[in-house]
Amino acid sequence: MKLKDYKFQKKLANPPAVGSAPNLRGLHHLQTKRNLALALGLTALVTVAFKLFVNNPRKAAYAEFYKTYDAEKSFERMKANGRFQSC
């Protein structure tokens, strides 16, 4: 670097950085890997949240319903209401 160039760069408030060109080689590949990892992580998170907040309460509600469910009593009630044409 010449003395003249050094003085010129010293006067600049923000001298340009050496090698500041963007790295475009393989950029699509890197972005695809990042997006894939992000998508898989979010998918796993949503799957666990759905299981905890939707499936488990639903299974508990079905289990509670079928603890006291009497199929014969339900059949007789529907039969008395005229739901079946064959009975």
From TrEMBL:
Q: How does it sit in the membrane?
A: Single-pass membrane protein
So, what pathway does this thing act in? Energy metabolism; oxidative phosphorylation
Span-the-membrane segments of this chain are: 35-54
Q: Where in the cell is it found?
A: Mitochondrion inner membrane
Q: Which UniProt keywords apply?
A: Membrane, Mitochondrion, Mitochondrion inner membrane, Transmembrane, Transmembrane helix
Q: Which GO terms describe its cellular component?
A: mitochondrial inner membrane
Q: Does the keyword Mitochondrion apply?
A: yes
Which family does the record claim for this protein?
Belongs to the cytochrome c oxidase subunit 6c family.
PANTHER family found in the cross-reference section? CYTOCHROME C OXIDASE SUBUNIT 6C
Write the protein's name. Answer: Uncharacterized protein
